[in-house]
Amino acid sequence: MDGALIRMATDPRSPTVAVGLQGSCCSGCAVTAYPAEDACPRCGGPAEPAVLQGTGRLWTWTVQRYAPKSPPYQAPPGGFVPFALGYVELVEGVRVAAVLEVDDLDDVRIGMPLTVTAGHGVPRARPTTPGEEGS
Predict the structure, then answer these.
(1) I need a surface site. Which of 31, 36, 53, 109 has the fewest CB within 10 A?
(2) What is 21-127's CATH number, 2.40.50.840, 3.20.20.140, 3.30.70.270, 3.40.50.80?
(3) pLDDT tens profile 32-87
(4) For the whole model, what pTM was predicted?
(5) What's the CA gap between 30 and 44, in Å, rounded?
(6) What is the layout of strands, in order, in the sheet containing 47-52?
(7) Which of 26, 89, 24 has the alpha carbon at shortest distance from 51?
(8) pLDDT value of position 9
(9) CA 60/CA 1 separation, integer angstroms
């Protein structure tokens, strides 16, 4: 990255450009990894780049109720607002850590269908709409 520092987003729930999750798949034993690996974490064989479907179910979650340490975190103008973080188990079998984009933290449930996208910073997961679910 030409010596540039990686900085945490000023608002971890800020909108991002949705792009496919870039993972990898072993050409020998078919294990999927995220993020992408050059070698399979199971058998050590070569792994090929793979775009992951991005749909799955919430495996576990928690709520970030306090502002992360500063620096590098910079509070948004309106101040810190608690947000949910979770692991989403994708249909490919890999678990991805993501910020959960939900309107109400009381609506978050283990097993709920989610769609995960990547962008700047950490992946984001939002509730899957009908017809979008692949799991």
Answers:
(1) 109
(2) 2.40.50.840
(3) 999 999 999 999 999 999 999 999 999 999 999 998 888 888 888 999 999 999 99
(4) 0.78
(5) 12
(6) 32-33, 21-26, 47-52
(7) 24
(8) 33
(9) 32
pLDDT digits over 85-131, tens only?
999 999 999 999 999 999 999 999 999 999 999 867 789 999 998 77
> Is 85 in contact with 60 (CB distance < 8 Å)?
no
Residue 100 carries which side chain, given as an amino acid letter? L
The residue ranges of every structural domain in the chain are 21-127
Concatenated DSSP letters for 8-72?
A: --SSTT-----B-EEEEEETTT--EESS--SB-TTT--BEEEEEE--EEEEEEEEEE-SPPPTTT
CB 118 within 8 A of CB 126: no
Cβ-based neighbour number of residue 125 at 10 Å? 28
